[in-house]
């Protein structure tokens, strides 16, 4: 089980022709029940209510349906466990573990793009 205290990035030395380069290796983890997902610094909601999108330094993402529902709940106050519980109540015909896995992967992908932090 991943720890919450995992650094987001750590330096890694690379050597090429006797020269040492430093590059950042990003450690991304799946959220755990106590994680509190939120929009990352520099990201914000934009557009109209019907065409709501996430604006971030490299572009914009328009989300619809469950993806939008999930991200709207990522306010830094709710925990991942609370968000999952709410979605499992809404989608009672779907396997609860599938919901957990899908949302976990969705948030991890957004974290990789630096749109969500937790």
Write structural notes for this entry.
This protein is α+β, with helices and mostly antiparallel strands and 118 residues long. It has one domain (31-117): Outer Surface Protein A, domain 3, CATH 3.90.930. The protein is built from three helices and seven strands, in the order E-E-E-E-E-E-H-H-H-E. The strands form three sheets. The chain has a three-stranded antiparallel β-sheet with strand order 4-5-6, with no helix packed on it. It has a two-stranded antiparallel sheet with strand order 1-2. The two termini are 15 Å apart.
Question: Could you name the key traits of this structure?
Answer:
26% strand, globular, two-stranded antiparallel sheet, Outer Surface Protein A, domain 3, 118 residues, alpha+beta
| Major beta sheet summary | 3 strands, antiparallel
Mean pLDDT: 81
Strand order of the largest sheet: 4-5-6
**What's the CATH first level?**
Alpha Beta
Helix count from the secondary structure assignment? 3
> How many domains would you count in the coordinates?
1
What's the total count of β strands?
7
Q: Structural class, please?
A: alpha+beta
Morphology: globular
* Radius of gyration computed on alpha carbons: 17 Å
Give a short synopsis of this structure.
With 118 residues, this protein is of the alpha+beta class. The chain has helices spanning 65-73, 80-90, 96-112; strands spanning 9-16, 19-26, 38-39, 44-46, 53-56, 59-62, 116-117.
